[in-house]
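tmp note - 50S ribosomal protein L18
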Amino acid sequence: MKKVIHTPTATVASSASSQEKALRSSLEIKRDVAAAAKIGKLLAERLLLKDIAAVSVHLKREQKYHGKVKAVIDSLRDAGVKLL
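out:
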């Protein structure tokens, strides 16, 4: 599950997961880079519907910008969400 947290209020602004009905039927494999890209696209669509046009990305120390992490972030950017 990928979440966007609204920092001042510590609430979830939006989220997306491969386990959701909206994605489950369109994913062949739920844990690959293609699935991560679709999760990022769905998350971006939901953010834009809530008029959230920019987000800040914070990776955990052990996370690197490649593979599934890169796919989610690139999908957000490609869908029109600005990264701060």
